[in-house]
């Protein structure tokens, strides 16, 4: 447990999921958790679901907490930072989950280098997130350990150089959407070949889950695991040939690159 108060500027679904995990694992106490949000609905949900203190005033939140999680969209972040900057003290630690916004930009506008930039993804909602983070120079080792634990509950969290954060955004941040499209396409194919929709979706989703577990638990290269399924002259190689002709790998690489470049552009467009 970290003996500090923590506040979330933005009480959205991602903030709620993070608080749930931190409470479940005993990392924080509900009495030490605060959140601010302009939406009355989100404040009510947050208060009911995680029993945290909810506020309408970001400046008031700053006065009550030591750790500040900036859980707002990058387009909103400049206005939020402008509002809270006069309230920053040397004791505040900032954790930002806004994609594309650099440590340098936040340090310039907040007047501190006690900042951690994090890129989580939505599977954190079901305890299977993949996150990466980088730190400002004044973040203490105990605080780095707290961030890593908070973001890795039942998932993974890795520390990377900041110049790689846009790549992380394109890969694991946007990646779940790409995988959902693969699951949808696989289940459509199952329906086309005669399976019922519910059965097709369950089989497709479990197949993706199982394949991912094989990669993580065996430590083998995905190509090795693919070869384990691919018998000479069999059904799988026919399917692989069809995917290669359709350009699956190139399309996925293009998707990750496009998302990463968009993340970089978001950061560049922030004033």
Verbal overview:
With 271 residues, this protein is α/β, with parallel strands linked by helices. It has 2 domains: 6-163, Rossmann fold (3-Layer(aba) Sandwich); 175-266, ProC C-terminal domain-like fold (Orthogonal Bundle). Helices cover 54% and strands 13% of the residues. It has 12 helices and 8 strands. It has helices spanning 13-24, 40-50, 58-64, 77-84, 103-110, 141-151, 165-173, 175-192, 197-218, 222-229, 235-246, 248-268, and strands at 6-9, 33-36, 53-55, 67-70, 93-96, 115-119, 130-135, 156-159. An 8-stranded mixed sheet has the order 3-2-1-4-5-6-7-8, sandwiched between helices. Helix 2 (40-50) links the parallel strand 2 (33-36) and strand 3. Helix 8 (175-192) crosses helix 9. The chain is elongated and about 70 Å long. The two termini are 37 Å apart.
């Amino acid at each position: 447990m970290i003996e500090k108060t923590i506040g979330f500027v933005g009480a959205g679904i991602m903030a709620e999921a993070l608080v749930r995990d931190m409470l479940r694992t005993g990392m924080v106490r509900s009495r030490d958790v605060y959140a601010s949000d302009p939406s009355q609905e989100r404040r009510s949900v947050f208060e009911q679901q995680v029993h945290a203190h909810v506020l309408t005033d970001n400046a008031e939140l700053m006065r009550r907490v030591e750790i500040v999680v900036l859980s707002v969209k990058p387009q909103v972040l400049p206005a939020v930072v402008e509002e809270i900057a006069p309230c920053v003290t040397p004791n505040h630690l900032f954790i930002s989950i806004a994609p594309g916004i650099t440590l340098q930009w936040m340090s310039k506008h907040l007047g501190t280098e006690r900042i951690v930039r994090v890129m989580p993804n939505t599977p954190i909602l079901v305890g299977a997130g993949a996150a990466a983070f980088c730190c400002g120079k004044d973040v203490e080792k105990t605080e780095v350990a707290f961030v890593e634990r908070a973001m890795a509950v039942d998932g993974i969290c890795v520390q990377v150089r900041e110049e790689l954060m846009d790549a992380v955004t394109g890969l694991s941040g946007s990646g779940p959407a790409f995988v959902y499209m693969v699951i949808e396409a696989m289940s459509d194919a199952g329906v086309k070949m005669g399976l019922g929709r519910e059965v097709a979706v369950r089989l497709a989703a479990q197949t993706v889950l199982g394949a991912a577990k094989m990669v993580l638990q065996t430590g083998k290269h995905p190509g090795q695991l693919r070869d384990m399924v691919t018998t000479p002259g069999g059904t799988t190689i026919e399917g692989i040939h069809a995917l290669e002709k359709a350009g699956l790998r190139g399309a996925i690489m293009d998707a990750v690159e496009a998302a990463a470049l968009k993340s970089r552009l978001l950061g560049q467009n922030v004033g």
